[in-house]
Specification:
alpha+beta; 2 domains; 8-stranded antiparallel β-sheet; 3-stranded antiparallel β-sheet
Length: 249
């Protein structure tokens, strides 16, 4: 698999992991299957997807809280001191809970070695690379507008859940997920059921579908490719494979 690439320094290179049949629908139909954000807080026995903070808006460490006053419906109040808290206080205000999200892996700089952490292999059996990030996002925005949906996208920021006090929201996740290098697309108003946003055939701006288990052997994002392309973000190298089973994008 070889492909040309037009470097775009303003955007990450986006890769989608998944089952081959789902990626085929993504590539040929432009089907973005978007789960409600709080879906991930309800998952069990899935260490890569389950996140108890999904659906929250704020997190406060006990040290950041002086006292809490709970007003009961009968008019009485309960006061809780910071010393009474056994752990962080997680707050959901409905500000960002009701949105649906589409998640991708992002390459934001060149890599001289394996760039996909093995833990990401749990996301499916295949992958594809989006070769023109801006065109892809333009198509997403156009489809969202046609469907009367607000759309926002950016890199996910990671925080230490043991020390962070402040905003969480759809574009912040605990540090334990940092190896996912996530780029997230969020649409509103959200649906409590999965939302299917169709942007049309994107085979013109994506690579063929390949085996995920071999991604670090079949794809290189290296410094040399970046220097040749003159991009500060990093570009897939476009050279002949060193062996029959090794190819560079």
């Amino acid at each position: 698999m070889q492909a040309s690439f037009d470097p775009q320094p303003d955007w990450a290179i986006l890769i989608k992991f998944g089952q081959s049949e789902h990626l085929e629908a993504f590539r040929r139909q432009g089907l973005l299957y978007m789960n409600p954000r709080d879906y991930f807080s309800r998952l069990e026995n899935d260490s890569e997807r389950s996140d108890r903070l999904e659906g929250s808006d704020r997190i406060f460490q006990p040290s950041a809280v002086r006292a809490l006053t709970v007003h009961k419906r009968d008019g009485s109040t309960i006061k809780i001191l910071s010393s009474d808290l056994a752990g962080p206080l997680v707050v959901g205000l409905g500000e960002s809970t009701h949105c649906n999200v589409f998640c991708m892996f992002a390459v934001t700089g060149p890599h001289d070695g394996p760039f996909v952490d093995p833990r990401n292999l749990a996301f499916g059996d295949s992958f594809l690379v989006v070769l023109d990030t801006q065109v892809f996002l333009n198509r997403v925005m156009a489809a969202a507008e046609k469907a009367d949906l607000g759309c926002e996208y950016r890199m996910v920021e990671y925080f230490d859940a043991a020390t962070h006090s402040g905003d969480t929201g759809p574009f912040r996740k605990p540090l334990q997920f940092a190896h996912q290098n996530e780029f997230r697309i969020a649409v509103r108003p959200g649906s409590r059921e999965p939302l299917k946003l169709i942007i049309g055939d994107i085979s013109d701006i994506t690579t063929p579908i390949e085996s995920l288990v071999r991604i670090n052997q079949t794809v290189d994002f290296d410094w040399e490719g970046t220097r040749q392309a003159g991009s500060s973000v990093g570009a897939p190298a476009c050279s002949e494979p060193a062996a029959a089973d090794r190819q560079k994008l």
